[in-house]
Write a structure and sequence with these properties.
126 residues; mainly alpha
Length: 126
Amino acid sequence: MTKTTSRTRLNPIRADRMRALARLAVANRVSAVYLALVGGATALAAAEPLFGSGPDASLVWVWPALFTFPAFGLVAWLGEAGWGGDTPTWFFVGGIVLSALVQSLALGAVWQTLRGRRTRHLTPAN
């Protein structure tokens, strides 16, 4: 006979919440389109040095940052506060990824809320 504790009883609940958050962030149309847009811009920016060597080659990273801007503004501010003008590239790229996931979660939550309101008002019971 195994002893159950509150910790073992909470783990399935936490796992369900984590799956629900993952579905909000990735498994809906709005979040998927947003992540595809940011992923495409990031892939294009990463591949640009292979194909172009113009004077504006470094400006291609502006697009992924703009697509993730509200959340990426905090990342840019933290990078400037922590490293000054010498913020490492890995911090900015990781910040773009993290900002995209946070904003995708927010878009998924808004999308679910709007769909819930729409379907709730169209029920035959009303």
